[in-house]
Amino acid sequence: MRTFVGNAPGGLRGGANLASWVVAGTLAYFLWVKPAQDLKKEQEERAALAAAADPYRYVEKKETHT
Fold it and tell me: CB–CB of 10/19 below 8 Å?
């Protein structure tokens, strides 16, 4: 049973296993997480610039009733 559990994550042990997880995590961050964060930030900046460019434009506000 111990051999199966040790080999389950790909057969790597110790430092090699940890290193592979670090590489996978780093790749995931730069391929998925960071681009999504950058896109969101860019959209927020664009919205702020658009709002500042035309201060008299109509903005619908919703009231919340609690």
Answer: no
Tens-digit pLDDT profile for residues 3-38: 655 555 556 667 889 999 999 999 999 999 999 999
In a domain, 47, yes or no: yes
Torsional sign, CA 25, 26, 29, 35: negative
Residue 40 lies in a domain: yes
Instruction: Look at the chain and report how many structural domains it folds into.
Output: 1
Containing structural domain, residue 38: 29-53
CA angle 25, 13, 6 (to 5 degrees): 100
